[in-house]
Amino acid sequence: MKIGDVNGNVSTNVSNPAVEGRSNRNVVMAVAEQTIAAGEVVEIPVIAANFSDVVGYQFTMNLKGGSYVGVNAGALDINASNVGVIAGDVVTMSYASTEGTSIHAGEVLFTLIVKADKAGNVSEMITLNSGVTAAESYSSDLTVGKVSLDVRTAPVAGIELNQNEPNPFKGQTTVSFVMPEAATATLSVYDDWKSSDSKKHRC
Question: Do residue 120 and residue 198 come from a single domain?
Answer without folding.
Answer: no
